[in-house]
């Protein structure tokens, strides 16, 4: 299998798809805290809703260095009625995937353009970290998308039904 990467994608990563599962490898060369990374993305022109900015600067930000393996379960792996947070997390557990930290949203957005996300056949990639409480008191998880805000949050109700064109990102043990 060869890794695919568009011209807009950073040189340190690539992806391939097999049976509705996208595998991504990213070499992280610098950590950085949430505030610095958020400011960098805003300076690059990414849109982030004001109410989402605090959510994207977690108190316990984990810096990643080295090779990171990411698995994105595509929404079309699940029947429409079964595409819920509970079932998605259950499938990830069966595949021995690891719950990521919020930091994964930065790795995805820094390395993949809107065109790359479209090439994956997705509109959104939801980072399936443990839900956090946003500024409005809602339980949310973060996502990157090729529409709207580019980086945002989604309600994290376990029984929420997700769209078929959404991918769900987890960390892979490598």
Description:
The structure is a single chain. With 174 residues, the chain is an alpha+beta fold. Helix content is 22%, strand content 28%. It is built from five helices and eight strands. Strands 1, 2, 3, 4, 5, 6, 7 and 8 form an eight-stranded mixed β-sheet that branches. The two termini are 17 Å apart.
Could you give a quick summary of the protein structure above?
The protein has five helices and eight strands, in the order ββααβαααβββββ.
Helix content: 10-25%
- Low-confidence stretches are 1-12
Mind describing the biggest β-sheet?
A: 8 strands, mixed
Whole-number mean pLDDT: 80
Quote the beta fraction.
25-35%
Number of DSSP-assigned strands? 8
What structural class do helix, strand and pairing data support?
Answer: alpha+beta
Any idea what the shape is?
globular
Radius of gyration: 15 Å
Count of alpha/pi helices: 5
What string gives the helices and strands in order?
Answer: EEHHEHHHEEEEE
* C-alpha end-to-end distance: 17 Å
Features:
174 residues, disordered N terminus, single chain, 8-stranded mixed beta sheet, 8 strands
Write the layout of secondary structure elements.
Blueprint: E1 13-18, E2 21-28, H1 34-43, H2 50-53, E3 66-74, H3 85-94, H4 104-111, H5 114-119, E4 124-127, E5 132-133, E6 139-145, E7 151-155, E8 166-172
Parallel strand pairs: 4-8
Antiparallel strand pairs: 1-2, 2-3, 3-8, 4-6, 5-6, 6-7
């Amino acid at each position: 299998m060869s890794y695919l990467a568009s011209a807009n994608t950073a040189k340190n990563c690539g992806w391939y798809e097999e049976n509705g599962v996208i595998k991504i490898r990213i070499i992280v060369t610098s950590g950085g805290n949430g505030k610095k990374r958020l400011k960098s993305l805003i300076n690059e022109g990414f849109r982030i809703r004001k109410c989402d900015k605090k959510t994207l600067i977690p108190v316990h930000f984990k810096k990643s260095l080295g090779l990171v393996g990411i698995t994105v379960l595509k929404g079309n792996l699940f029947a429409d009625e079964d595409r819920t947070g509970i079932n998605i997390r259950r499938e990830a557990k069966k595949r021995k995937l690891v719950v990521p930290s919020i930091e994964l949203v930065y790795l995805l957005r820094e390395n993949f353009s809107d065109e790359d996300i479209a090439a994956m056949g997705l509109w959104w990639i939801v980072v399936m970290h443990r839900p956090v409480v946003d500024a409005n008191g809602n339980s949310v998880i973060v996502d990157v998308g090729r529409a709207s805000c580019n980086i945002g949050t989604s309600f994290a109700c376990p029984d929420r039904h997700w769209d078929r064109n959404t991918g769900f990102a987890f960390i892979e043990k490598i």
